[in-house]
Specification:
alpha+beta
């Protein structure tokens, strides 16, 4: 599938065939080398909460609900090589990551891969080899871009 520049789509993250989060974004680029997506400040997205509506108590709980949440950070530019989408846990989440492994939520092989990717990124950062590639270093969204709406089928896994 290929998306055109300016198309409004949704990133759906899921776990065990259940949607974890949905973020409406705008396509900046979709080429054989890079997929670039942008989330506008103020975008309403779906964020997980515990069944009672409180913040999710630990990483990858067994059950959760999604609530509308407004993105309060700055614009978020997501860059990925096609076929290379993955989630990396920040080191501050190490205890939650281990808990998810103990509960069987993350297979041993996947955990080892994520840890390896994370350690590789840390090494690149320490060596000052990890830099935002051109032309993305100075990229800014067009002023006319508005927050994409939540798609009506946001709850559907394809």
């Amino acid at each position: 599938m290929h998306w055109n520049h300016g198309a409004q789509i949704a990133i759906r993250e899921h776990w065990n065939r259940k949607i974890w989060t949905v973020r409406p974004v705008t396509v900046v680029a979709d080429t054989p080398d890079v997929i670039a997506l942008y989330m506008t400040p103020g975008t309403t997205y779906k964020h997980p909460r515990a069944i009672d509506g409180s913040p999710v108590p630990h990483f990858l709980p067994d059950e959760w609900v999604l609530v509308d949440t407004q993105w309060l950070g700055g614009g978020a530019l997501y860059l990925s090589q096609p076929g290379q989408w993955f989630t990396a846990w920040r080191w501050k989440d190490a205890e939650k990551f281990l808990d998810a492994q103990r509960r069987g939520c993350i297979p041993v092989e996947q955990a080892a891969y994520v840890r390896c990717v994370g350690e590789n990124i840390v090494q690149q950062l320490k060596a000052r080899r990890l830099k935002l590639p051109e032309p993305w270093r100075h990229w800014r969204p067009p002023e006319q871009w508005e927050s994409p709406p939540m798609p009506h089928d946001w709850h559907v896994l394809e």
